[in-house]
Design brief:
Layout lengths: L3 H25 L16 H10 E8 L5 E6 L4 H7 L23 E4 L20 E2 L5 H5 L6 H14 L16 H7 L3 E2 L1
Length: about 190
């Protein structure tokens, strides 16, 4: 004998509840995206420096749960960017990332992936074929440049932190202690 009308009504109600719960679970697990306002609004370098002090937008790619653009408060670190992208996937190698480094607006953080073939040394590296990245290098890496000691290396990093990163190599002239002759020696050794 069948379940009867009452049994069918109960089964239908249970089916509806299960469908609603499944829909809610799928909805909550969807990837989140955040729109990015066009950079054409920036009028002056001074305005962009103050805007970047408020917030940074960075791209996180590679072995993370939700790759894409993330918005972070000023002073955020690489670890914050990885967390904002849902965290690293199991087995992702984070040893090539300096998780304590402060992020710079507009940068790309590649998690758990090696540099593409022919890309040379990673950003911020002094070894290899390319110039040193002003927005990713450490104090020790700046200190290894000719004519730059530990004090000047600290000033370069402090300038980068205070101004939200370098937008051009010429901004290096604004660092206290870098005159025209020293700048000319460093110009070809650094990049943005």
């Amino acid at each position: 004998m069948g379940p009867g009308r009452r049994g069918l009504a109960v089964l239908a109600a249970v089916g509806v509840v299960v469908a609603v719960l499944a829909g809610v679970a799928v909805w909550r697990d969807r990837p989140a995206s955040s729109p990015v306002v066009s950079a054409s609004v920036v009028a002056e370098p001074v305005a962009s420096a103050s805007a970047s002090a408020v917030q940074a937008v960075v791209a996180v790619s590679g072995k993370v749960r939700r790759p894409g653009l993330v918005r972070l408060p000023a002073g955020s670190r690489v670890a914050d960017a990885v967390d904002a992208a849902g965290g690293a996937l199991p087995g992702a190698d984070l040893s090539q990332l300096n998780l304590a480094r402060k992020v710079v607006d507009g940068e790309l953080i590649a998690v758990g992936v090696g540099a593409p073939a022919g890309a040379g040394a990673p950003a911020g590296s002094t070894s290899g074929d390319g110039p040193l990245d002003l927005n990713a290098a450490t104090v020790d890496q700046f200190d290894s440049l000719p004519g730059v000691g530990p004090v000047l290396a600290e000033r370069i990093v402090a300038y980068r932190t205070e101004h939200g990163g370098f937008r051009s190599v010429d901004q290096l002239r604004e660092v206290d202690g870098i005159g025209d002759s020293r700048f000319e020696k460093l110009r070809e050794l650094v990049r943005v």
